[in-house]
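Hey,
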Amino acid sequence: MGPEMKEDKTKTEARSTSFELRFIVLLLCFISTVVPVAGFALRDCRISQNSAICKPVDGKLRTVPQDIPSTVKSIDLSSNNITKILTSDFRKKSVLTELDLKGNTIVQIDPRAFADLISLKKLNLNSNKLVKLGDDIFVGLSNVTELRITHNHIKAVLPTSFESLTSLTFLDISHNKLHSSKNVHSLLQQLPNLQSLVITNNDLTHFQSWELTNSSLELASLDLSQNPIAVFRITADVFPNLTWLNIGSTIKNKMIWDIRNKTFFSRVSTLDVSGLQLVSDDWKTFLESFNSSLTILRMNQMKHDLTELISISCTIPTITTLQLRQNKLSIIHSNLFSLCIHLTELDLSDNSIQKIQDEAFMSLKGLRDLSLGRNKLPSVPAATRNLKILSKLDLSTNKISSLGCNDFANLTKLRQLNLYQNPIPALNEFAFKDLIGLQVLKLQSCQISRLNKAFSNYLPNLRQLYLNGNKLTIIKKGELNGLKSLQNLSLHENQIKVFQNGSFIGLTNLTILLLQSNDIQTDSLKQNWFTGLTNLKRLDLRDNHISYANSLSWLPRNLLEGLTNLLSFDAHSSQLLSIHKDMFKHTPRLQMLDISSNELTDLTPDLFSPIQNLKSLYISRINLRSLDFLINAKLTELEFLQARKNIFSVISQEEINSLPALVYLDLFGQSFKCDCDNAAFLNWTVKNTQTQVFDAYNFKCNYPPSLNSTKLLDLDIHSCSVNIEFNCFITTTCLTLLFMMVSFTYHFLRLQLVYAYYVFLAFLFDSKHKNTQASDQYDAFISYNAHDEPWVISELLPKLENEQGWRLCLHHRDFEPGKPIMDNIADAIYGSRKTICVISQRYLESEWCSREMTLASFRLFDEQKDVLILVFLEEIPTAQLSPYYRMRKLLKRQTYLSWPRAEENTNLFWEKLRQALKTREDHGEDRFLLNVVDQP
């Protein structure tokens, strides 16, 4: 209900009673102070799936932010300018499991700075300026399993630096300045569960087992590469569980290799000796140290004769993988791998290979993976045709300019073929005819301009086809018909303008279609390209500059017809001027929509009505003037909204409430109207806890001019918490109604109100005195007006006191001086058996007489005793008694005496009065009544 409707409703209900009016006003005041749905803003971080990424858009952090929620499980503070880690920086982060501090300038970590991180598993301190590690900086990290401290300036490890890391299994302390294997010993001694140690590129010159003999070494992986190790001497079995060893080095010094027993490395299965030089050049003896278990051997950038090394290596029957990168092999001769009959994987990448002899791979009958990328091959080598069980072939980044009909003959088992970054201008129709088992084909960045039906009839099992980054201008009908199993088709970053009708017919299994960054014409879109793509889940059309010849830009309303399973649609930066409201009626499952960087200006709720499952919406840079379309769009499932750099300046309470599931709002670069119109949005941004508002602390004001460039969150909104105009309306309405009620009451109910007032006072005194009075002091209290005092003194008093002997109480004679008048009246009434009210016109007009009569009548009805005697000195019409409701009620139930009617027989009057005074308060005597006199 809007504010106008609320006010109308209030006006109507206010006409009933004053109580209802007050209730409604209070209710409206409560509604106006209700806090909206949840949300929160961080100054320098953003939260995504329980992870905080802290990288300010306008600089670098110098300290750890203190507003990161304690519930996050991962914090990324990398690439900032933090110099110190303080004890208070990570307090109350007990659920944190990952902390990334790489790329800062940290020189100091306070003792126990990580003490609260009891759940932490991974800690990254790479690329900082740590020189030493204190004794207790890792206190509390007993659950950390992975620690990285590379690219610092650490020179030594203290004996107790790592003792708190009892669960550590992986440590990378590469690119520091450790110079002795004693440092390695110190590490291993403190870390009983360590499985993998990476200590590359330090200053280790010796590695000798006698320095490690006291350690319990459970290492499975050890990386000592790029250290100037002159002596590697193992005289004891200190690595009984080692399976992975890297001792490669590109440093020019040569190493002395001294292994006293060949069984010491009997479990090593992966060995990397890239760039290593031995003093003895006895590689046969060296490799025999690993003979019994070695399966993977890496010999990149070798200085020794590679032919000899390959021959020696291939005599080891267990080796199945051989990596020979960057060895400057220009020609692969036919006998180079003649002994490598057990190889299943061969990597010859980055070798400047220009020629491979046809028989070069003849002996590699079991080869399944061959990498020839980053070489200078002019064509597909015929040698690969001998590899009949080959599963993966990498020919990327060569100089292959064409594909022949028989280039891949016999490769029926091939599953992946990489041909990207080769200068192939056109495909051969029969180039892939033998690749019946191929599943992945990478042809990106090959300058291809024509497909030539290469995919019309072959590749029945192909699932992924990468043709992006080429020079295709058209996709003709039937050119992709042979790809029945295709799931992922990448055609982005080409020059495609036209898709002929039926271009994608037959691709019923396609789930991802990437068409971004082309030159697609709107005319071609009218052909309904996507017929048959019922399983398509992602469609990307961004950066296509879609337009007609008359410069109108829009998408046909039936563009997405048939895509009933589409989950993601991207039309970012496509020069669109409008989107038809029925565009998405065929895509009810859509969850991600990006229409940013277009000229849409306004959006309508009808556009979103068919896609109620939408979870992510990108509407940045579309010159949007308002977000009011959200109010009726019913996007109740939306979790992510990005609306950067638009021209709206106000976000209303209704717009906020329309997105109950929102967890992330990105309004980066937005400026706002800084007045009470944005008070609800500002309050929601700062105080609530469900929706993160990215970069909120940098939002600036664009109005009024006096606040230009002021930060929105610096605005004081306390004055906005009360709606002045609405409150003025309520106040004016209340005062008007009050004036009308007072006027009405004064004119028609004045006497009733006066009487009610006296009744109320009498009730108070009755409640106070009715149970507190002791025994009767008087037989009767005489209530009369001063103008009737002569009759009381001359007639009533002589008869009742002098002749009949009653004890009477008169106010002028018996009231206690100095005592409040109402207390005297109450004491007199409750201290007497009876009260005689001497009623006249003057009596009815007297304030105090009315109080006396009212209090006496309360006693009569509340105590149910015959304690009241009414004596009328004058004839008083019924109309004059109407304001005195209690008296009228009393006269209808009670007998009374009339003096005017007794003038002819006063003796009877006094006798009746005597009898009335004589009756007691018991129930039997209450039945005795005076002779009834006609009542008014």
